[in-house]
Task: inverse folding
């Protein structure tokens, strides 16, 4: 029998799982290092889940009626789904126990790789900065309910007195996010395996019902996206079939299908006609949908508080929107637009932020509080929350009127931009000039920018912030590390040298600390992937560069070597994507402001004698709208901002850019339009899958498909790198190919980094000798 409990009036779609003090990160990394065992890691995770339930109940979510989502993961929710349904690639079969389950150590091996076992690929989760692991599904991949942690975690909450709502990646999204396993037939797509997968989901629903779960949340964000390679009609047919099968399961929880990150569009009528009991709609990004007869009998869960950003919600506008929504959907609940996975825990601990700025912000806990307020307004009437509406409106008005939010001089500069500011000369002429100026060998080797950040380096930065290390001693420490990195690269034989970025805590935060219009947090950590966390900066006002940022470090580095040094900058789109950006003006305007600040920095680098300048744009693909109709406008302004930043240099100055986990083929035309002289891109985990896209597109600029997966602790062998280079050279003219890792080396240790780079150089020399001898 299906439970009849009503859906909670107020809820959220998910909550940060790393812990307010990154407890999970520290425990997981201690487990990897062998400092704690699996039992200790499980204990920390259990304590963290218990604290989260108590926190959410204290903030106003009903602890007895499935308002609290059970959305924990040790590493990644898509990996969890793969392990739940038994979708373990054949190369990891030795990790599967007699009971069909993969233990924690095995799960981390699948995520990170070990020895000759390459990990699952990793890519961006829709248009966020979260990375998920890509399942591998073949025509004969067996599916079976192999892990019921989600049931165990529900029971854990129940034992503490909480009736929570288990959250699972839905079957359609799971298959659409998967890739075809190696050896699959041409034309096969993982979504073709839906019929085989659905019985496993059905069994899981029954186990949850037996455990007492009244509701289950199936996350189906793929329904709002048009970025998949399968026809939209196939997606809708899969949705219709999956909801039909799962809603027909006897003895199941009520089903809530959540589809964040955009408008459901043509998927909404399918859900309305289905047998599921609740449907989530993202009203922040998708707008208020039209009524549908089928929705009259379902709960519509209205996402009116932005889960993707940190600005304090306009509660009066949200209340107005809910008032209109309840006229169309009589069974209405209120929620965040997305999981709160994308925001930090609590703004109240940010005591170093300007109090005025802090009053404009809402992190996860504050957003839960806003949901509780709006839910109270739904049940008791608008008058019951009048004070909260007034306070939120006052904060919004104060933000719009604050000094620095609008700077007349900056606005005048962007208004005066002309087409010539966005263009460089002919690429072939530039390439000839750069070849003569730089004198590099074919297959030039380089790295993406950062080198491992040692404990000494991190301590020096922290001591400088704390005032216990003076500026002179700090500079001396950083210069010593730069000297070490330069000497290492020269010893290894790397052709284009970087300074290693020891002075940078984060590739975006470092620039935010030196640009007007930004603020940075102390504790605003957000999970990026696995145990990797970042602190996105807050872009609150008009942006400008008061002084040079990187020039001194790059010039010092060049003084240590006769090899060309790359100046390292973060591009305008990535600075926006990896920050919490003001929402009171178009992103295009903000991007041009950042681009002009970077253009000034590039001009100063060039004047200082830096002949190669890399402007990283790993997030170019990340911000691509999920709806095709919106993509052209985005690519116009995003490409334009990069060109605005880089178009002022001489022909002899070589501009590089870098993209990681960006699905090269999806944005190949945009990458061509960037007009960078050299583009490096992730390619190692996918074993050079990008080469076919490069070859098919006729891309003729320099390209560095990565040969070292830096997101894994594995050291690639000489043979492995050689094989990757040979794949690259089969599809790309050798004059275009550069050799580099997938991404920066900041998160790696020196021992594995040195070994990996040595293997890369050795493999490159061998391939150079072979290619030179044969052609």
Result:
């Amino acid at each position: 029998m299906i439970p009849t409990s009503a859906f909670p009036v107020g809820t959220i779609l998910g909550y940060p799982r790393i812990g307010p003090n990154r407890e999970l990160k520290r425990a997981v990394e201690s487990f990897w290092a062998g400092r704690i065992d699996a039992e200790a890691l499980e204990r920390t995770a259990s304590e963290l889940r218990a604290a989260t339930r108590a926190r959410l109940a204290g903030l106003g979510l009903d602890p007895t009626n499935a308002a609290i989502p059970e959305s924990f993961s040790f590493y990644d929710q898509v990996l969890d789904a793969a392990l739940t349904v038994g979708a373990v690639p054949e190369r990891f079969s030795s990790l599967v126990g007699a009971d069909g389950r993969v233990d924690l150590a095995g799960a981390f091996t699948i995520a990170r790789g070990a020895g000759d076992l390459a990990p699952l690929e990793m890519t961006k989760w829709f248009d966020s900065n979260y990375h998920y692991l890509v399942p591998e599904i073949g025509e004969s991949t067996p599916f079976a309910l192999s892990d019921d942690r989600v049931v165990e975690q529900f029971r854990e909450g129940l034992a503490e007195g909480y009736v929570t709502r288990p959250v699972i990646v839905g079957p359609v999204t799971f298959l659409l996010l998967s890739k075809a396993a190696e050896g699959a037939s041409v034309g096969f797509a993982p979504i073709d395996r839906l019929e085989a997968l659905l019985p496993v989901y059905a069994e899981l629903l029954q186990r949850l019902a037996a455990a007492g779960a009244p509701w289950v949340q199936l996350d189906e964000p793929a329904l709002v996206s048009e970025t998949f390679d399968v026809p939209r009609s196939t997606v809708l047919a899969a949705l219709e079939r999956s909801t039909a099968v799962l809603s027909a399961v006897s003895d199941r929880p009520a089903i809530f299908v959540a589809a964040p990150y955009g408008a459901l569009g043509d998927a909404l009528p399918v859900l309305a006609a289905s047998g599921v009991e609740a449907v989530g709609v993202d009203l922040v990004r998708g707008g208020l949908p039209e009524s549908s007869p089928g929705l009259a009998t379902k709960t519509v869960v209205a996402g009116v508080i932005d889960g993707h950003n940190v600005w304090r919600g306009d509660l009066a506008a949200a209340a107005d929107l809910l008032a209109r929504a309840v006229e169309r959907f009589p069974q209405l609940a209120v929620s965040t637009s997305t999981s709160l996975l994308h925001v930090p825990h609590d703004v109240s601990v940010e005591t170093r932020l300007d109090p005025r700025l802090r009053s404009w912000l809402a992190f996860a806990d504050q957003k839960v509080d806003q949901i509780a307020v709006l839910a109270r307004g739904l049940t008791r009437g608008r008058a019951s929350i009048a004070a909260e509406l007034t306070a939120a409106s006052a904060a919004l008005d104060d933000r719009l009127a604050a000094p620095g939010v609008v700077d007349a001089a900056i606005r005048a500069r962007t208004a005066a931009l002309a087409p010539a500011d966005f263009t460089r000369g002919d690429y072939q002429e530039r390439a000839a000039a750069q070849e003569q100026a730089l004198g590099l060998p074919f297959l030039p080797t380089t790295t993406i920018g950062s080198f491992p950040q040692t404990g000494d380096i991190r301590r020096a930065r922290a001591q400088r912030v704390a005032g216990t290390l003076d500026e002179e001693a700090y500079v001396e420490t950083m210069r010593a590390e730069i000297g070490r990195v330069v000497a290492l690269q020269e010893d290894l034989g790397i052709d284009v040298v970087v300074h290693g970025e020891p002075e940078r805590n984060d590739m975006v935060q470092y620039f935010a600390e030196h640009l007007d219009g930004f603020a940075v947090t102390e504790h605003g950590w957000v999970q990026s992937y696995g145990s990797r966390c970042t602190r996105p900066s807050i872009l609150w006002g008009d942006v400008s560069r008061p002084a040079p940022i990187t020039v001194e470090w790059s010039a010092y580095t060049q003084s240590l070597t006769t090899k060309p040094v790359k100046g390292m900058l973060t591009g305008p789109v990535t600075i926006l994507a990896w920050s919490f950006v003001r929402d009171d003006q178009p992103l295009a305007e903000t991007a041009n402001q950042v681009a002009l600040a970077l253009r000034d920095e590039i001009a100063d680098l060039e004047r200082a004698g830096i002949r190669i300048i890399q402007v990283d744009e790993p997030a170019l693909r990340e911000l691509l709208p999920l709806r095709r109709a919106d993509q052209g406008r985005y690519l116009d302004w995003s490409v334009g901002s990069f060109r605005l930043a880089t178009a002022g240099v001489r022909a002899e100055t070589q501009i590089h850019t870098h993209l990681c986990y960006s699905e090269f083929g999806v944005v190949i035309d945009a990458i061509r339009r960037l007009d960078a002289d050299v583009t490096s891109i992730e390619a190692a985990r996918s074993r050079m899958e990008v080469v076919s896209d490069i070859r098919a597109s006729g891309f003729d600029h320099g390209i560095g498909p990565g040969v070292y997966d830096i997101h894994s602790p594995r050291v690639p062998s000489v043979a492995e790198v050689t094989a990757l280079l040979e794949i690259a050279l089969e599809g790309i003219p050798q004059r275009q190919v550069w050799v580099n890792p997938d991404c920066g080396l900041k998160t790696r240790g020196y021992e594995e980094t040195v070994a990996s780079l040595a293997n890369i150089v050795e493999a490159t020399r061998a391939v150079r000798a072979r290619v030179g001898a044969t052609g």
Remarks:
- Residues 684 and 707 are 5 Å apart (CA to CA).
- The mean pLDDT is 95.
